[in-house]
Amino acid sequence: MKKFLVAIATAFVALTASASNVEKIQFANAGDFSLGVMIGVPAYGGGNMPHISVDGMFGLKDGFINTKTFGQNGAIDLGAYIGFCQYGDKWEVAGVEYKHSYWNLPIALRCGFHWEFVKKLDVYAGFQGGVAIEHWMDKQEVSGVDNRDFGNHCDGVFGMYSGAKWMFTDLFGVKLEWSCDWIGDGNDMSPIAAGVTFNF
């Protein structure tokens, strides 16, 4: 534990030292638009494809927090998120084959707060809320005859997200994001995803 705390303290000192070069917010300015494309871990087990998502964010306000170390920092943006993932599983019991398939399409509005304490690094967190459109189908195959049951469902989602972007240029970077939703099934968004981001 002592070594872990020393490592955290060392990393914090290093980041703070390099933060002296940050004079203002760089990548979440008011009026800027960012587009992110991510591939994430499926929220449910048995997923046969990764969780794919696209998010677009528009900068509303930047540089409204004035600090001695980080300059005019802090930014707020607003945008939308849409994802898709498909799941499938099959098993057999007493000669009867069971199949279950499911797809999920979460659509949410997002509002995030950004803070840049190291050049090229944008750290952010925020809240998201919307709906998840779901379709499921269960199938039993007995003696070559399929018995199917299926349905559609729309559920509300609300939660939070956080992440970091490392920008290679003013226009392009990579991002890593964590997400959690608390309403509905609680598993509509990918818990962790990585991808690319573009600034316009």
Task: Provide the fold topology.
Elements: H1 2-18, E1 33-40, E2 51-67, E3 71-93, E4 96-118, E5 121-142, E6 145-167, E7 172-181, E8 192-199
Antiparallel strand pairs: 1-2, 1-8, 2-3, 3-4, 4-5, 5-6, 6-7, 7-8
What is the share of helical residues? under 10%
The major sheet is characterized as: 8 strands, antiparallel, barrel
Order of helices and strands: HEEEEEEEE
Q: Tell me the Rg in angstroms.
A: 21 Å
Proportion in β-strands: over 45%
Overall outline: elongated
Q: How many separate helices?
A: 1
Average per-residue pLDDT, rounded, comes to: 82
Oligomer: single chain
Structural class: mainly beta
Structure description:
It is a single chain. By secondary structure, the protein is mainly beta. The chain is 8% helix and 67% strand. It contains 1 helix and 8 strands, in the order H-E-E-E-E-E-E-E-E. Strands 1-2-3-4-5-6-7-8 form an 8-stranded antiparallel beta barrel. Strand 6 and strand 7 form a beta hairpin. The chain is elongated and about 75 Å long.
